[in-house]
Amino acid sequence: MSEQTIETQTHTDPDGYVNGVHLETLKGTVSAIAKESALGQCKFRANNTWMGGAHNRTTITGFYGACQEIAHKQQYELHADEPPILAGNDVGANPVEHLLNALAACVTTSMVAHAAVRGIHIEALESELEGDIDLRGFLGLDESVPKGFTDIRVNFRVKTAPENIDTLKQLSAYSPVFNTITQGTNVDIRVEAK
Amino acid sequence: MSEQTIETQTHTDPDGYVNGVHLETLKGTVSAIAKESALGQCKFRANNTWMGGAHNRTTITGFYGACQEIAHKQQYELHADEPPILAGNDVGANPVEHLLNALAACVTTSMVAHAAVRGIHIEALESELEGDIDLRGFLGLDESVPKGFTDIRVNFRVKTAPENIDTLKQLSAYSPVFNTITQGTNVDIRVEAK
Predict the structure, then answer these.
(1) What is the pLDDT along chain B (194 residues), one digit of tens a residue?
(2) Are A31 and A117 in contact (CB under 8 A)?
(3) Other CB atoms within 10 Å distance of the CB of residue A8
(4) Cβ under 8 Å to B: A residues 82-141
(5) Which chain A residues are Cβ-neighbours of B34 within 8 angstroms?
């Protein structure tokens, strides 16, 4: 896996924050959901528009949670494309790279938040991900070849007290994206005329 | 699911292109991998750096495929964060929204490319995704609650000849991200001291 320079960051937290997470806010959410489970029912959303060829654009504006519609502070736009060798123009990361991004982001956030509520301080955290795909599956050249990732490796490097390392590894298992990818989930696709 | 205005696009393809996909390029890749399966072995990669709190940044620079290291034309940076209600500052889509983006992008690209090689013309294609998560799982409030998405719904609207609709639905099943999410895959997480 290629190396790249990553800045080391030291997080000196102001009062009420651990790992940059405002503990009262997080604990308030946990406490509210513990008392009223309906508050924890979330629906996350994305809209996508095909831009031609391998290029498409996702917009994300808000979600449902805490029994209400919640708008993001801003609309997010994400572009996907393929590199030239895969018949694209390379104006965005490709879809499977976007999946690795989702996994990296989710495991990172899950470790940081769960560490915060346990009083585990993290000074720096970075990760490298690599996943294997045999394109014969996607291209339909061999029905016995899986079409998706067969293995994904995630290597975290963390700056923290040494005794926290094993705990952080265990906390990674709380990640929703990690669980979705490792456990599998139902995806219902419908196609209708526009 | 919230509606939003999406432009309708008509793709008038120049010679050699179907759905904006250059057929000779795509068919050349397929033919090369059919002859030499090692060319289809890909390793996709992402590097992530924690920025503090719920904010982290992924960089994507290149991948391994066709028996060589291939650099993207540019480096991609993707930011993830959480909204305030989830103790973040909302400077990016959250990780599970990034997963929906990966799924939308991949199924779209898969349908468009497989349609192109079959001579199926698509004039416009858009989708809305919604996925359910019960936060009691992630928060560790109830061990019986799944931590990831339990159901994801993807609704495509496509402008094409009516007889193509069922075929396009079938072609969606070639998507690597769809297969990764529905079938599950191995994710090996390691955590070491920095």
Answers:
(1) 334 433 444 455 678 999 999 999 999 999 999 999 999 999 999 999 999 999 999 999 999 999 999 999 999 999 999 999 999 999 999 999 999 999 999 999 999 999 999 999 999 999 999 999 999 999 999 999 999 999 999 999 999 999 999 999 999 999 999 999 999 999 999 999 99
(2) no
(3) 11
(4) 82-87, 90, 92-110, 112-114, 122, 124-141
(5) 141
- Does A72 touch chain B if contact means CB atoms closer than 8 Å? yes
Query: B54: nearest CA in chain A?
Result: A109
Candidates A35, A185, A188, partner chain B, best to mutate (most B CBs within 10 A): A185
- Six token digits for residue B49: 């750096």
User: Hunting for tokens 């940076």 — which residue is that?
Assistant: B77
Residue B97 near residue A77 (C-beta atoms within 8 A):
no
Angstroms from A29 CA to nearest CA on chain B: 7
pTM, entire model: 0.94
Does A11 touch chain B if contact means CB atoms closer than 8 Å? yes
Q: How many residues does chain B have?
A: 194
ipTM of the complex: 0.94
| Element at A18 (helix H, strand E) | strand A17-18
